[in-house]
Write a structure and sequence with these properties.
Length: 357
């Protein structure tokens, strides 16, 4: 299943030879208001993202409503809350999904989701989702991966916290389930995550080690890590987005607002274009500047028959004369006609040892 060139979502080819595929992760940043969800879809479309991603779960499908210590959060952004309380606030109501898929279709932007259990997959299949994403925390849920894989839809697996063996197991589960099109995302499951934790050189190793397209799920606060990842092979970039970082939602503080998303979309495209190919030839933007290279010019008036000495010729700008590398061969030649100061040195104006030029 080495499908470097076969991964696509809704006809959009995804791989190192194509511009990076940018996914705007809505997550919980609708803050419980479907109008905000619509606005985020609009924002992603304006900014140039390829897709918007939801998360499909309920508090009951993720955890238990339980007071025991295992279910309480004691550090990080969400300290002081229970898992159940957090997910109850953050989930995207299932009754919204149909409207959101229809709205995204109307806005001509791809929408898909991360399911967190089989019932979520069933819902998304009813809506004919074009793809699936397995979240980092679910990368070890091999039965879920197999259940998603059997849909036959393109599948992206995020690998935050997963070691090499766990990534291999997730990929094998997807293959066993019949997944025809698979990609994986390098990820650091910190919220936010420091750039120094990303070890982006891992991307190249992931692609060669696992034989599938790779990308980046970026939880840093700016776009530097994402843009850098393109040079190391990332062909999918996922980033959390929000209407306002100060809205107080669970994920707002580490998400991009519209200007940041626009900068990301432009930046990764420019980074990809800058990679280009191995090319030592003169580029189109250089053509007009060739004249500013150095070349050999006569810097004193000369009469026909005079011998050229070092005081007669100099390497200067512009570049209309012979290349400076011919200086030693030009010295000692004879000029064939009167020469005015500021004339470029040319083979037609000198003789003798110039035949060797």
């Amino acid at each position: 299943m080495r499908n470097h060139n076969g991964f696509m979502i809704k006809g959009r080819k995804i791989g190192r030879e194509y511009t990076p595929y940018v996914i705007a992760e809505m997550s919980a940043n609708h803050n419980g208001d479907i109008q905000n969800a619509y606005r985020i879809i609009d924002m992603a479309k304006r900014a140039g993202a390829d897709a918007v991603k939801l998360q499909t779960y309920t508090a009951e499908t993720l955890t238990l409503d339980c007071d025991l210590p295992d279910f309480q959060l004691t550090e990080g952004l969400w300290a002081g809350r229970s898992l159940f309380e957090l997910y109850q606030e953050a989930f995207t109501p299932w009754e919204w999904h149909k409207s959101l898929f229809e709205y995204a279709c109307k806005q001509q932007i791809t929408l898909f989701s991360s399911p967190f259990d089989s019932t979520a997959v069933d819902l998304l299949e009813e809506l004919n989702t074009p793809a699936y994403k397995i979240a980092s925390f679910e990368a070890v849920d091999l039965p879920l991966i197999k259940y998603v894989a059997q849909t036959g839809k393109p599948l992206i697996i995020s690998t935050g916290m997963a070691d090499e063996e766990e990534i291999k197991e997730a990929i094998e589960a997807a293959r066993e389930g019949g997944c025809p099109s698979l990609a994986i995302l390098h990820c650091v499951s910190g919220y936010p995550a420091p750039a120094k934790d990303y070890n982006l050189r891992t991307l190249s190793d992931m692609q060669s080690r696992f034989g599938v397209p790779v990308g980046l799920s970026d939880h840093t606060l700016d776009n530097t890590t994402a843009m850098t990842s393109v040079a190391l092979g990332a062909c999918i970039i996922e980033k959390h987005v929000t209407l306002n970082r100060q809205s107080g939602g669970p994920d707002d503080r580490f998400s991009l607002e519209e200007d940041g998303l626009l900068a990301l979309c432009d930046g990764v495209k420019n980074a990809w274009q800058a990679l280009g190919t191995v090319n030592y030839g003169r580029k189109s933007s250089e053509q007009a500047n060739v004249k500013f290279r150095r070349s050999l010019y006569f810097v004193k008036d000369m009469q026909a028959g005079e011998v050229i000495t070092e005081c007669h010729v100099k390497s200067i700008r512009p570049g209309y004369g012979l290349a400076p590398k011919y200086m030693e061969q030009v010295i000692g030649c004879v000029v064939l006609c009167d020469i005015a100061r500021g004339t470029p040195v040319a083979l037609s104006k000198i003789k003798r040892e110039v035949d060797e030029l």
